[in-house]
């Protein structure tokens, strides 16, 4: 799998969704989706894009189990956090409050673990991170 391509394309999807929600809020005058909009743009677009650039710029080994866990954890965590947040705050399906809460928490936890893995990668593969 090309980590950079996967992360950049996924971040583009989140950028579009975040911009669409922002446009919808601006046109409708309501700010009920502002937390969801912000998280989609920050963790969905910005973080995934930055991770994609990180893998392009620095030669982190392609067979690194940490990198594989990081990429998939980031992908699943961003999806779980943002969709869970939408389910939790927008309540589009009445009666799913417990499911929404669990989905939101599990997604956020997976994303937090992915960020911890990124921290480990930065230190474990630090020899590859250089201005040279």
From TrEMBL:
InterPro entries linked: Cyt_c_oxase-like_su1_sf (IPR036927)
Keyword list, A-Z: Membrane, Transmembrane, Transmembrane helix
UniProt entry tagged with the keyword Transmembrane: yes
Gene3D superfamilies: Cytochrome c oxidase-like, subunit I domain (1.20.210.10)
Transmembrane segments: 12-30, 36-55, 67-89, 101-123
Annotated SUPFAM superfamilies: Cytochrome c oxidase subunit I-like
Keyword Nucleotide-binding belongs to the record: no
Protein name as annotated: Cytochrome c/quinol oxidase subunit I
């Amino acid at each position: 799998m090309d980590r950079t391509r996967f992360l950049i394309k996924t971040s583009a999807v989140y950028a579009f969704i975040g911009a669409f929600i922002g446009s919808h809020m601006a046109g409708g005058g309501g700010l009920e989706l502002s937390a969801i909009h912000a998280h989609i743009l920050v963790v969905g677009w910005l973080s995934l894009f930055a991770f994609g650039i990180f893998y392009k710029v620095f030669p982190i080994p392609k067979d690194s189990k940490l990198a594989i866990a990081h990429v998939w954890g980031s992908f699943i965590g961003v999806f779980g956090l943002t969709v869970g947040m939408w389910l939790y705050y927008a309540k589009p399906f009445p009666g799913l409050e417990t499911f929404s809460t669990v989905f939101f928490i599990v997604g956020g936890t997976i994303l937090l673990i992915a960020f911890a893995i990124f921290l480990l990668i930065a230190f474990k593969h630090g020899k590859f991170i250089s201005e040279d």
